[in-house]
Amino acid sequence: MMRADIVIIGAGISGAVLAQQYAEIGKKVLIIEKRNHIAGNCYDYVDENGILVSKYGAHLFHTNDEQVWDYVNRYSNWYNWEHKVVAKVDGALLPIPVNITTVNKIFGLNISSEADMKKWLDDNREPYLNPTNGEEAVLNKVGAVLYEKMFRHYTKKQWDKYPEELDASVLDRIPVRTNYDDRYFSDTYQALPAGGYTQLFEAILDHPNIEVQLETDFFDIKDGVTGYEKLFYTGPIDRFFEFKHSLEDKLEYRSINFVSETVDAEYFQENSVVNYPGNEVGFTRIIEYKHFGNQKSARTTIVKEYTTDEGDPYYPVPNARNQHIYEKYKVDAEALADVYFVGRLANYKYFNMDQAFKNALELFSALESTSEPIIQKAV
């Protein structure tokens, strides 16, 4: 193991960005990664059907942040991708987010203007001035019928909790459109890396001052990890502190079981992602990866996603109970010298991809008193 000025636990977005930034100012950086690959949950590869697939679910990059967009473009070429999602409801495929088309198909209406759509929403929603949970947040936006058909059971499958058991912020961020716009995101920049995310991370980490040690559990070797200036930890915060505040009530995380199938057909479905919000099936969605980048192959790969409590933690479960437990760990984290907790699992907070890039860049800038990201490489 090399002597390192900076030790980083995890080779996902947060770890890779911090490693690159510190390497550029001459620091020796060691990344310790438990998995057998870099790129965290963004990791992708070409499967047996010749299709670029993501091992841990589709990752769609979108941002309004010029600094983040400039940063990622230094390490990869990108192609425009305006992501669209449809949901199978009552046998029909309906656009998500809810828009005029969604309402017209479900209710047999002929709404054609934004004014009429706004009126329909006002007439059907159940107003809550300050929603206190996920159910109230959705009812406040779209009313009871759409809530039951598109959100209630899907939320239960995804989180193993009904909306009323989750913080309002989980479902309050779901957009509702008053026009025909069927894009899932509305950000200025929406794109995918031309060579895939793994190649993007390889480029970010391509620096002589960075060493990556794969298939190594930090907790198996942590007593020997000494002499560093700073340590950055991107894993579950409760694991770092040996679950000291969670012996009875553990922090909750959700994982995903990905079931991949080869289908002997050119395409399986008409869209890259089809959600299944009802409880007639156990999976939450089916992803067909060849749609991304218009890939060509004789057969196709589909992946069904089942959320579960077992397996690698992917995202935290935001509610008052978990936040109360997390706050105890946060106090412990802030008391440590030269150890920093960064990313979704360490901060027990959901980040979009661009937010994860931004968070890591801002942390480096705050610690090292720089005003702009340090970038030397261009594609």
Automatic annotation (TrEMBL):
Cofactor: FAD
Cross-referenced SUPFAM superfamilies: FAD-linked reductases, C-terminal domain, Nucleotide-binding domain
UniProt entry keywords in alphabetical sequence: FAD, Flavoprotein, Isomerase
Ranges of residues in domain UDP-galactopyranose mutase C-terminal: 149-350
EC number: 5.4.99.9
Annotated GO MF terms: flavin adenine dinucleotide binding; UDP-galactopyranose mutase activity
Enzymatic class: isomerase
Entry annotated with the keyword Isomerase: yes
Listed Pfam families: GLF, NAD_binding_8
Any one GO cellular component localisation term in the record: cytosol
Family that this chain belongs to: Belongs to the UDP-galactopyranose/dTDP-fucopyranose mutase family.
Name of the protein in question: UDP-galactopyranose mutase
